[in-house]
Design brief:
mainly alpha, 0% strand, 169 residues, single chain, 2 domains
Amino acid sequence: MINKLIRAIRDLMLFISLLGLINIACRRTYHFLSAHEESIIHELDQDFLNQLYIAKKQTHIAAQLTAQCDPNDHVCTLKMQKLHEKIDALEAEYKKNSPGLAFLGPIGTTSIIFKERRVNKKLLKVVNKITQTLLPFVEDATSFTPSTSIAQGLQTNKKLISKLQTTTT
């Protein structure tokens, strides 16, 4: 009788553990599918998405700081808003893929890779434009040299923004 009770408790514990594991698997699958809603063909590069979000954040902060430095200069704020809109467009372009590409096999995969390279180049141009826009507001800024990588450009912009923050406070 006690052995049957112990086995029943063990079976119940195993069943509860199984339900927990199934729950975790379902949640992970849901999050993956919701993140790749329009791009189920290939997995999105999380590093690139993080760079997009950092660039968005930098344009927002830079627009606020440049407005504090010169409240009458609305041109810089408009430039930052346009750059922010370009980043939004790049994000939408990166996330959206045609379902027909999956049927093309290697040709479809190649087109996705070319699209990713094109979007990378566009983001690098936007990051360099952010740097160009920020340089006149920094006192000890050197001449503009375009960044060769997105990470390098984001790091340069981070330094410029921190210098701007120290001069405005």
